[in-house]
Automatic annotation (TrEMBL):
Keyword Metal-binding found: yes
Highest taxon, organism lineage: Bacteria
One of the record's GO molecular function terms: zinc ion binding
Name of the protein in its database record: SWIM-type domain-containing protein
Organism of origin: Dictyobacter aurantiacus
Domain SWIM-type: start-end pairs: 43-89
Keywords: Metal-binding, Zinc, Zinc-finger
Length: 157
């Protein structure tokens, strides 16, 4: 017999209870999630990577259900972890939207020209990119042919 778990959709108020924080020692993000019962209580939701198995890991939460190993939860995790995951998805979507907006706002250039440590303005960029190579005269070409032509090796002059 198959069992199904009923999960309610996560609301914006629940996502707003999540605060993303980055641990400055490990540079790993985690979430502090406010309790529904008491706004003064916050639970720490963290993802721990498994060093033996890349791409695998587990979540921890400091709520009472998390401290008991999620055995009383209807799903694999408590609601605080589900809220933190939803907040993480919202955060990733915002970063993606910001990157797209930045990409749309910047002029489409195939090259980056830096002069004096800063990106060149449009006039300088156009002048440098559309510059024509020098046109050599026939006399200059003949001079260079004579100058750089291969000569036989002679030990004695």
């Amino acid at each position: 017999m198959a069992t199904t778990t009923k999960t309610s959709p996560i609301t914006e108020q629940q996502i707003n209870r999540c605060t993303r924080i980055i641990d400055m020692q490990t540079m790993e993000p985690f979430y502090l999630v406010q309790s529904e019962a008491d706004d003064l209580i916050e639970y720490k939701v963290q993802y721990h990577k498994d060093p033996k198995c890349p791409g695998k890991g587990h979540f921890t939460c400091t709520c009472p259900a998390g401290l008991d190993g999620f055995i009383h939860c209807s799903g694999p995790y408590c609601k605080h972890i589900r809220w933190a995951l939803a907040a993480s998805q919202v955060h990733k979507a915002e970063l993606k939207a910001q990157a797209q907006a930045k990409k749309d706002a910047s002029p489409a250039r195939s090259h980056l020209l830096i002069t004096d440590g800063q990106e060149a303005d449009e006039e300088t960029y156009t002048r440098v990119i559309s510059a024509k190579p020098p046109q050599w005269t026939e006399a200059e070409i003949q001079r260079d042919v004579r100058l750089y032509a291969s000569r036989p090796f002679k030990m004695w002059r």
